[in-house]
Amino acid sequence: MSVPLVAPPVAWAEPGPLGRFRQLLSRVGTMCLVELQKLRRDRSELITRGIQPALWLLIFGETFTRLHAIPTGNTPYLDYLAPGILAQSALFIAIFYGIQIIWERDAGVLAKLLVTPTPRAALVAGKAFAAGIRALVQGLIVVVLAAILGVSMTLNPFKLLGTALALVLGSAFFCCLSIVIAGLVLSRERLMGIGQAITMPLFFASNALYPVDLMPGWLLVLNHINPLSYEVDALRGLLIGTPAHLWLDFGVLIGAAAAAIAVASALLGRLAR
């Protein structure tokens, strides 16, 4: 006589869509915490990376404020510049994040991570949002320096939360862009070269330093497809109250971050070969 099949215990059952989503969030959070543990062991990196944005504010900002060379309406140029430098500091952190992925591949860490049940999207998203947290910590340094220099910024907690969200989303996109480049070039040296080659064009092809109205037509086209421009527009509108297109800005940042996570996840296996 055949023995009837017994249903597996509930604990063994395949989780539903909500359960899988919770698992994904849990694993993203775990990977993010792992990345942030590295920050605790090397806090000097934030200090050294904070030097460049500080110089932009102190030298470029103060000088062009006195020259009145860039028309920014009723907004002092230093106030106008501060959100752009905030976005720049996050960009400079995130754009070289792919080097860490290549190091993990060479050390065998990436191969071990890829054989775990953790989805690749969770691995990439964890690193992306860890880059965003790093950007927040360094951004705090920039904000404090800007306040010392007399930049008038909002104290509205909801606007400050929106500022943090824009910074994290922008950093997540550029972190994943770096991972995509790493998945294509498979070399630290090539990634460093490409990262250095695209960082300043991304910065200068945005509205971080000057209003969009001053751009020539060809640069205006690049500005419209540059996610950094939408990040700066959101930061400027939230921090100093200039006119901004917040729904469009956050829509572009969320869409760009999601697309970059998907592409970087697809290329992650190529890195481990």
Summarize the structure.
The chain has 273 residues and is an all-alpha fold. It has helices spanning 17-41, 44-49, 51-67, 77-94, 98-106, 109-114, 120-148, 157-185, 188-204, 217-224, 227-239, 246-272.
Gross geometry = globular
Low-confidence stretches: none
Query: How many runs of DSSP E, i.e. beta strands?
Result: 0
Radius of gyration (CA) equals: 21 Å
Strand content: under 5%
The H-and-E topology, N to C, reads as HHHHHHHHHHHH
Distance between the termini: 50 Å
Mean pLDDT: 83
Structural class: mainly alpha
Main sheet properties: none
Describe the protein's architecture and organization.
The structure is a single chain. With 273 residues, this protein is an all-alpha fold. Helix content is 75%, strand content 0%. It contains 12 helices and no strands. The chain has helices at 17-41, 44-49, 51-67, 77-94, 98-106, 109-114, 120-148, 157-185, 188-204, 217-224, 227-239, 246-272. Helix 3 (51-67) packs antiparallel against helix 4 (77-94) and helix 4 packs across helix 11. The chain is globular, with a radius of gyration of 21 Å. The N and C termini lie far apart (50 Å).
